[in-house]
From TrEMBL:
Protein name: DUF1127 domain-containing protein
Region described as Disordered: 1-22
Biased composition (Low complexity): 12-22
Organism: Neoroseomonas soli
Biased composition (Polar residues): 1-11
Limits of the YjiS-like domain: 31-67
A Pfam short name: YjiS-like
Amino acid sequence: MSVECSATSLRTAGHPAAHGTTAAPGLWARFRSRATDAMERRRARRLIVEMEDRMLRDIGLARGDVERAIRYGREDARPVLPWWRM
């Protein structure tokens, strides 16, 4: 599994506004945007499920937090501290 693919999916999955939406999108643009968001969330979910628990701990996630992180990102989560500050 490529780390860059995982990072890109995780970076964009929780941020639908990052796709360059217009001020007043039409019906087709909204449909395309939602379909793209759903595909990215599905891809991110598949990549995260393939990760080992140790890898998830390294990025600051637990198995139970995966869905929330995919849908909403990690802005509201506490910062990940280095092991020497824990």
